[in-house]
Amino acid sequence: MAPASSRSRGPVEPRDDFDLVMLGGDIGVYALARAFHEQYGTISHVITRSVSGPIADSRILVAEELGASATEDDLAAALLRHGRERSAQRPGVPAIALANADWLIALLSAHREELEEFFVLPVLDEKTLRDVSDKATFSEICTTLGVSTPETVVVDFTGEGPTEIPELPFAFPVVAKPARSSAYTHVEFTGKKKVYHLTEPAELTDLVHRLDEAGFADRFVVQEMVPGDDTAMRSITAYVDQAGRVTLLGGAHVLLEEHTPGALGNPAAMFTADPGEIAAQAVAFLEHTGYRGYANFDVKVDPRTGVAKFFEVNPRIGRNNYYMTAAGANVARAVVRDVVDHERIERIVPDDEILYSIVPRPLLMRYVTEPGLRARVRRIARHRTVHPLAYATEGARRRAYIAIAMANQVKKFLTHYPRPSSSGF
């Protein structure tokens, strides 16, 4: 059974006194466009290399396709060109520029000075971005604040010659991943993954050698394996206004993550839940670092101790952000009230319990094995289930795409994660 579309209705607060321009074209960009359309009736302008399924044939955005070979400089130039043209057509009307990939956030931040002539940029400055988006530095900051993280060893690929294989103070299996996703995006080699599950020292040695050969010149982190399957994961989404106040905050209990090599760890299904102390720890991190803009934390609750361990903060809203909007905390409101209206607002929090899912329900229930959790998921699903792409405003082509995408999820899971495991790998 496919998740239901949202109720068909007009925008909550129709407005035409600002524009939204975004870089990228994934499901998270569409979810942001949908939030702005639901709240304000905004038709977003999206600049992307390729128009893929999540944004194709949409009535709520205009896609500008540059071509698959477009470089970062091409994207920046296209954004500036659009900014100049839009400014001439709508003088005095502000435009918000956003993105939903680490490397695109880094692009906006690096070009801030020239972009700010035409856009409002509610994204991190370059220094803070480097500090918080580096998983090694993130762990150090959390330690300072008394926030738990997995035990971590850093592998530095910036030196001359072969990179040294580290001695680990914890046992295999381990998890390895790039310290900064933006520095890993353009590196290509056979067997490249978003996250690596390594079961023995020889696999770590092989990974280090392959990264050396590919010319990777940043840092990797190797972390202890925190036990528990996907259902031990939690997601925290926030927005920090230009005065440093956390004005959007909510969380979700993850049920199933994607398991294809390029998308491993992205939530595929989750339900909204009060994050409790986890949210307070996220706020402490955001305030301590001088954070600004959207943030999304990945957290795992260690079943041995019940302690929540923070893995990383994504310097963006995250591809799964529609769970917030669907649960009553429309993510567009925080940024518009901040950078367009310049208002101090009460914190926006979810007020409904909903199931967010991009997979068919029978497939989801295959992986939710704990009886009490299964019963809770069924109850929430009956109340309201949402798919970020299933928007009643859209047409038949979009509905057909969603049906195909849902069917493809079955194939992907049966290929890459055919049955549930205690570790999620």
Number of strands: 15
* Percentage of residues in strands: 15-25%
The secondary structure category is alpha/beta
Low-confidence stretches: none
- Number of discrete helical segments: 14
What overall geometry do the principal axes of the alpha carbons give?
A: globular
Strand order of the largest sheet: 13-12-9-10-11-14-15
Helical content, roughly? 25-40%
What's the end-to-end separation, in Å? 26 Å
Biggest sheet features: 7 strands, mixed
What's the mean pLDDT score? 95
C-alpha Rg (nearest Å): 21 Å
Order of helices and strands: EHEEHEHHHHEEHEHEEEEHEEHHEHHEH
InterPro entries: ATP-grasp
Protein name: Carboxylate--amine ligase
GO molecular function: ligase activity
Keywords: ATP-binding, Ligase, Nucleotide-binding
Could you walk me through the main structural features you see in this protein, from its secondary elements to its overall organization?
With 425 residues, the chain is an alpha/beta fold. It has helices at 27-40, 72-89, 102-110, 112-115, 126-133, 135-145, 181-184, 201-214, 277-289, 322-326, 331-339, 361-367, 371-383, 396-416; strands at residues 19-23, 44-48, 61-65, 95-99, 152-156, 174-178, 196-198, 219-224, 233-240, 246-257, 267-272, 293-301, 308-314, 355-357, 385-386. The strands form 3 sheets. Strands 13-12-9-10-11-14-15 form a 7-stranded mixed beta sheet. It has a 4-stranded parallel beta sheet with strand order 3-2-1-4, with helices on both faces. The longest helix has 21 residues, at 396-416.
